[in-house]
Amino acid sequence: MNALLDVRGLNAWYGESHVLHGVDMQIREGETVTLLGRNGVGKTTTLRTIMGIIRQRKGTLRFNDQDMMPVPLHKTARHGLGFVPEERGIFASLSVIENLMLPPQIAKNGMTVDEIFELFPNLHERRNSPGTKLSGGEQQMLAIARILRTGVRMLLLDEPTEGLAPVIVQRIGDVLIRLKQRGITVLLVEQNFRFASRVADRFYLMDHGHIQSEFPVAQLGERMDELHKVLGV
Amino acid sequence: MNTVFGVPLPALLGQLLIGLINGSFYALLSLGLAIIFGLLRMINFAHGAQYMLGAFTAYLLLHFAGIGYWPALILTPIIVGVFGAVIERLFLQRLYGLDPLYGLLFTFGLALMLEGIFRYYYGASGQPYATPPSLAGGTNLGFMFLPNYRGWVVVASLLVCIGTWLLIEKTKLGAYLRAATENSTLVQAFGVNVPILLTLTYGLGVALAAFAGVLAAPIYQVSPLMGSNIIIVVFAVVVVGGMGSILGAIVTGYVLGITEGLTKVFYPEASNTVIFVIMAIVLLVRPAGLFGRE
Ligand SMILES: Nc1ncnc2c1ncn2[C@@H]1O[C@H](COP(=O)(O)OP(=O)(O)OP(=O)(O)O)[C@@H](O)[C@H]1O
Ligand SMILES: [Mg+2]
């Protein structure tokens, strides 16, 4: 079966500075894949380049058998790709419900607002308060929920558990498992690999702007030494 | 005779009305500037010229097509707004991402060109534009005489300001605009066509200026310099309200117009400078403006 997301030899630059040096990854429909790596190796850059936010890029980037390189940023979402940034991107001048309803619907199979409020009751309680009055965990849930409403096929999720309490991390894990049951493909950037091992099928380990190795979740135990060395933890 | 602090009441109310009228124009113009600045991050130096263009378009519609005030009040903002949208597409879009100085210089040049063209054909003196017959005359309010047209200017500007505010605060389009003002890249990644949003926003800001220009035509004369006379004060209003704050622009516009009117009663010598003095104080105490985010 062809990969849903097919990335080959992806390079990216910020002005003069060359950050991605030939990233390769193939992700099949329905998989949850975690991208691991030390701070500053280019994980966020990889997601932003796949999404089309970073335009200084070279290489092959195919999604659902379509060449994404010429697609302008505002048309990328229509192909079924959704992006949740590291800083969550909750808009301060929009209420919770306005934040939730902001991204245009791209497919009919997205979560309904009722389903979202059932999954995240806190959001329902606070639907009329400004988006940034939410706690960090609630903001993360809102950031994920608003993308799920649109009916994406694949979610690019950047460090969703960063700075959150263990209970909230658990909730976010529950949500990712629900997504997997719905058949949504996820590329997750995560430092917390205990959390990642709960949801991921596969791992990519990134170093200095390229993929250093790849392994299934079953090998996580035997790879611990390598991981500790590369991740410096 | 009734007096307030030694000033006869009719004189006070008269100046209050003049202040309110000026405030109506300040509010409309600073609202357009604030919307444009909020999303495009560009100071539209052509705003005064676009206000003048609104007044002249109404004047030209009347003299060359026989189109009167009421249709012109609708047509002019559309015509001038489309002109603004074309300018944005052809020129401003090339300047995003560059130093904001380029946008400032471009719009400044545009203002000089527009003024130059109308000066060439009409000279520096003003052309009269008649008050629409339906609003001629005035109403005796008992305590003062209110020219009907001036009452209409206040009502029309309030309606348009409130309407624009509702558009921005209560509609989906407004939500896109507010969100894109905060983080346009993310809004674009959500699938919103931000380039079109920028064009619409600039067109809307320019249309507001043109609407103010048509409203102004029967009160002030239609003159090539009418824009540069008012725009300096409007920039001060925007600075006091807080760059990019929609509500700030509206409220500050009216409040400063009235303040200016009252100053004329109590300390006439300062009436031309009071707004700039307030601006200086606000810049010292609250540089982000009264309604701006720190
Ligand atoms: N806007 C930018 N301009 C220039 N360089 C940048 C920019 N953003 C990131 N970089 C550089 O690119 C490299 C990769 O950054 P990136 O944010 O992708 O790393 P990361 O793996 O996501 O790190 P972290 O774990 O800290 O989030 C870093 O060296 C960083 O300094
Ligand atoms: Mg990162």
UniProtKB/TrEMBL annotation, chain A:
Domain ABC transporter: 5-233
Pfam families: ABC_tran
Alphabetized GO MF terms: ATP binding; ATP hydrolysis activity; branched-chain amino acid transmembrane transporter activity
PROSITE patterns documented for this protein: ABC_TRANSPORTER_1 (PS00211), ABC_TRANSPORTER_2 (PS50893)
GO biological process: L-amino acid transport
Protein name, as recorded: Branched-chain amino acid transport system ATP-binding protein
Organism of derivation: Rhizobium rhizoryzae
Family: Belongs to the ABC transporter superfamily.
Alphabetic keyword roster: Amino-acid transport, ATP-binding, Nucleotide-binding, Transport
TrEMBL record, chain B:
Lipid biosynthesis as UniProt keyword: no
Record's signal peptide: none
Matches recorded under InterPro entries: ABC_transp_permease, BCAA_transport_permease
Keywords tagged on the record: Amino-acid transport, Cell membrane, Membrane, Transmembrane, Transmembrane helix, Transport
Transmembrane residue ranges: 12-39, 51-68, 74-92, 101-122, 149-168, 189-218, 230-258, 270-289
CDD domains to which the protein is assigned, alphabetical: TM_PBP1_LivH_like (cd06582)
Protein name: Branched-chain amino acid ABC transporter permease
